[in-house]
Amino acid sequence: MAVRAEEIASILRQQIEGFGTSVVATDVGTIIESGDGVARIHGLSGAMFSELLEFSNGSMGIALNLEEETVAAVVLGEADDIKEGDEVRSTGRVIEIPVGDSLIGRVIDPLGVPIDGKGPINTTRTRPIERIAPGVTLRKSVNSPVQTGIKAIDAMFAVGRGQ
Fold first, then answer.
1. What is the pTM of this model?
2. CB 109: neighbour CB atoms within 10 A?
3. How far is CA 163 from the centre of its chain?
4. What is the mean pLDDT of residues 88-107?
5. SS3 string of the chain?
6. Torsion of CA 152, 155, 160, 161, to 10 degrees
7. Which of 35, 41, 124, 130 has CA atoms 20 to 30 A from the CA of 148?
């Protein structure tokens, strides 16, 4: 059974036309030090402050200390599995959590995933975890005291509701 050159060329042409991959560029780094829930990473030159990072064990982290050569990240998952030499990928997303009335009374982890066993959170709005607070002049004034129950503290420090 002889295969003709035209058939081979036709098959190759079909495969080339059907070949469709998308190229995704990601910033990849290597852990050079890990301990106490903080990982120091080399190679994430394009990392942003509060960016979500993905560790090779599936845990996530937040890039907090951006230095010239390294990035220090707080690990938001199992920090015991993270070790020197592991790969870390940049996600390009600043960490944000869901917001809205459906969050009232719920318990969530730092990534906004519910951990109270009451099912998913039905909200479409999110906000970054790091935001600039509204100016003092825009806030409601403090007009009612809060008692701590310890007379020495209540006498020395005036604590108001909303402070």
1. 0.68
2. 12
3. 28
4. 92
5. CCCCHHHHHHHHHHHHHHCCCCCCCCCEEEEEEEECCEEEEECCCCCCCCEEEEECCCCEEEEEEECCCEEEEEECCCCCCCCCCCEEEEEEEECEEECCHHHCCCCECCCCCECCCCCCCCCCCEEECCCCCCCHHHCCCCCCECCCCCHHHHHHCCCECCC
6. 40
7. 130
